[in-house]
Design brief:
Radius of gyration: 13 Å
Number of strands: 0
Shape: globular
Helix content: over 70%
Distance between the termini: 24 Å
Largest sheet: none
Length: 80
């Protein structure tokens, strides 16, 4: 499952983190721990914080750009 792969990526990154990125990875950890619904809602938001965190997302390497666009479109359609 992609969710589990993203969690594993985050854990691996946390083992090799430099001090400058530790807080960003902690933010991702908190988002992931808040659940898929909240995390996906955040990842598709247009806030400055979401823009900043998307630059270092553990989800970014799981899908091709085309797959990512399709996933976001499908997820938003399901939300109504």
């Amino acid at each position: 499952m992609l969710w589990d792969k993203a969690v594993a990526i985050l854990k691996r990154w946390q083992l090799t983190v430099c001090p400058q990125t530790e807080s960003t990875l902690k933010e991702w950890e908190d988002l992931i721990n808040s659940g898929q619904e909240i995390c996906f809602e955040f990842m598709t938001s247009k806030s400055e914080r979401a823009d900043r965190l998307r630059q270092s997302s553990p989800f970014s390497c799981l899908l091709t750009p085309k797959e990512r666009v399709a996933f976001i479109k499908d997820w938003k359609n399901e939300k109504g």
